[in-house]
Amino acid sequence: MDVFLWVLQILLGLMFLVGGLVKAFAPKERLQPRTPYVEDFTQGQVRMIGAVEALGGLGVILPWATGIAPVLTPIAALGLAVTMAVAARVHVRRKEPFTVNLVIAAVAIVIAIGRF
User: What's the predicted TM-score (pTM) here?
Assistant: First the structure.
């Protein structure tokens, strides 16, 4: 079970870290073709979303890997699940597909349960 959780943690963490860094540093106009929902947010809001995602990605991996405050790993996973629930709500409002958000949220919840 530990190996399974590690695989999920690394995949989820890297996905959020990379995606978050792109959102945090790329101009909104460059993001818009691949992530059209950014038109609903200001540049500052998109950067904040990116920062939250990048920090969550680190939080899912580093505390458990280092043994320093490992309780932060399941908390970060729950935070990412909430982030995906909010993202799904945005996609529902925009009449866009949101299934991927729910799957990612489910993976984050599995990590949280497995690590608590």
Answer: 0.92
